[in-house]
Design a protein that fits this description.
Helix content is 42%, strand content 12%. The protein is built from 3 helices and 4 strands, in the order ααββαββ. This is Reverse transcriptase domain-containing protein.
Length: 98
């Protein structure tokens, strides 16, 4: 799920709670990518992320998440970035989101 801004996030969380899907076992992962330039290839960005995570990981985990899981989440963001321009939807196929 993507959110437009903080207010949208709060509203969607409230809807999630009101629908009965928010359980004590529910886990949320949020992240915001900043300063990722479109000239960096996706492969290069993933390689840099994996190098950074490997350097700072404890038993190939960062705060309980495996490096593989974090890498898969990063690929999800990079591979499904969409935007609207002049009321038309586009999927970014080169580089990364700004």
């Amino acid at each position: 799920t993507t959110f437009i801004n903080g207010i949208d996030f709060v509203r969607q969380i409230e809807n999630y709670r009101n629908s009965g899907r928010l359980l004590p076992t529910t886990l949320f992962v949020t992240f915001d990518i900043t300063n990722l330039y479109t000239m960096i290839t996706r492969h290069g960005a993933i390689a840099a992320l994996q190098k950074f995570l490997s350097k700072h990981a404890d038993n190939r985990r960062i705060h309980g998440m495996t490096i593989d899981t974090i890498t898969r989440l990063a690929r999800l963001v990079l591979d499904t970035n969409c935007f609207v321009y002049n009321n038309k939807y586009y999927q970014q196929i080169r580089g990364g989101a700004m």
